[in-house]
Amino acid sequence: MAARASSKTDRGIAERLMVSPLFENMTLDDVESCFTCSGALCLSFKKGDMIFTEEDEPTKLHILLEGGVRIGYDSFDGNRRVIGNFTDTGEVFGDILLFLGKEKYGVFAQATCDSKVISLPRDFMSGTCGNACGYHNQLINNMLMSFARNAYALNMRLRILSCPTIRQKIAKMLLVYNDRDMSKPINMTREGLAEFLGVTRPSVSRELMKMQDDGLIDIKGRKIYVLDPAEIEALN
């Protein structure tokens, strides 16, 4: 159950969300005006709370303020599939189906820890408010760019899932999500990695251990470091 923390955001929240691509090229006053004009809500969620379910109607654009959110669905075989994880302040989620006229999301959004989310009404995002608000136009332009980035991310995930072996899936993910910068580790639990790749956790654990034994990667807690970039590249 979500608890509404506030019916409007304060300046401190607006300052924190300036990092969001949704508010790119906008001033702090612009961001505050967007919240006021739209009637945005700041919602609080406990770990495990559903922000929206597969059966809910898409009516809001969601922006992560703090915490973490995962997007997924329950498959016919009873397994839960995760298709996205959001952990950074300012990340936008729940936007893909917002303007398609769908009656249901078809996916769920769940808080992975105590979290706060800003919720913007769909109607505010579908057209300007008629008050000659320059920030409103900029917000819509930024939203279109966000859609493009999401489409790109989905395409990259499809490329990962299309790899024939678990090792190749892991290697492709290391390449894609590090943008080929092998000095940066992937930070993900084995359960999260298994859900993301659509395979069982034991299978992922075994392959990670084999890759570590082969000198390809080093695992420290939740972080996976690449030790042999050339071999990781060769797997793809």
User: Structural class per helix/strand content?
Assistant: alpha+beta
Strands side by side in the biggest sheet: 1-2-9-4-7
Tell me what portion of residues adopts beta-strand conformation.
15-25%
The CATH class label of the largest domain is Mainly Beta
Q: Residue-averaged pLDDT, rounded? A: 85
What is the CATH architecture term of the largest domain? Sandwich
Number of DSSP-assigned strands? 12
N-to-C span: 43 Å
Instruction: Output the helix-strand order.
Output: EHHEEEEEEEEHHHEHHEEH
Number of helices: 8
CATH superfamily of the largest domain: Jelly Rolls
Pfam family, one: HTH_Crp_2
GO molecular function, one term: DNA-binding transcription factor activity
Domain HTH crp-type: 164-230
Protein name: Crp/Fnr family transcriptional regulator
